[in-house]
Design brief:
2 copies of one chain form a homodimer.
Chain A (H helix, E strand, L loop, with lengths): L6 E2 L1 H8 L3 H10 L5 E2 L5 E4 H7 L36
Antiparallel strand pairs in A: 1-3, 2-3
Helix pairs in contact in A: 1-2
The first copy, chain A, binds a DNA duplex through helix 2.
Chain lengths: 89, 89
DNA sequence: GACAAATGGGGTAATTGGGGCG
DNA sequence: GTTGTCCCAATTACCCCATTTG
């Protein structure tokens, strides 16, 4: 089953969290999020992992994106009734 | 329709409500407003939810400071004078 | 070969979180 | 009961430029 293993660029993840791309890089460097390194040294993040961290309280869908390479428009991903996330300091 | 799920920083919400960022943090801690935590522990708020709480248009009967100065000659003053605030006490 | 844009690394200032107090 | 301000430490944002990506 494809859970959405598409890889996101730091800019994409930064836009999802409303943070700076450098901050996403810092998360990967701190081990808070898995990262795949390109041969050149750049990082790519798995969409499934990013969305797992993005769970706050409510469904959310894609923000504006001119290039949506996913013709599959099946919002079957829902039912997220989990309580508040367990963000620990 | 456009829900406007942009994320706002505590400083943004504080500026919208004219309060201290710490107050916004307490609202999130008290569960009065949904919050998304970044892996670093900082909070992000949904603009749609903030605007829903920021409703000032429509009905506005909130003008008394709690001291009734004319108990008589008053119209059918119902006991409920609170706005649409769902905050329990 | 070239280009524009994004990313990474290092540094700094600004914001944020938590606790306690007025 | 709430909100504002103090302390602190942590996280985040913006500056530079070299490299990688497309």
């Amino acid at each position: 089953m494809d859970t959405g293993d598409r890889l996101l660029t730091p800019g994409e993840v930064a836009a999802l969290f409303r943070v700076d791309p450098k901050t996403v890089t810092r998360w990967a460097a701190a081990g808070r999020i898995g990262s795949i390194r390109t041969p050149g040294g750049h990082r790519r993040f798995r969409e499934s992992e990013v969305r797992a961290l993005l769970e706050g309280e409510g469904v959310l869908d894609d923000l504006d994106d001119g290039a949506n390479r996913s013709p599959n428009s099946g919002p079957a991903q829902s039912g997220n009734h989990g309580p508040t996330n367990a963000g620990l300091h």
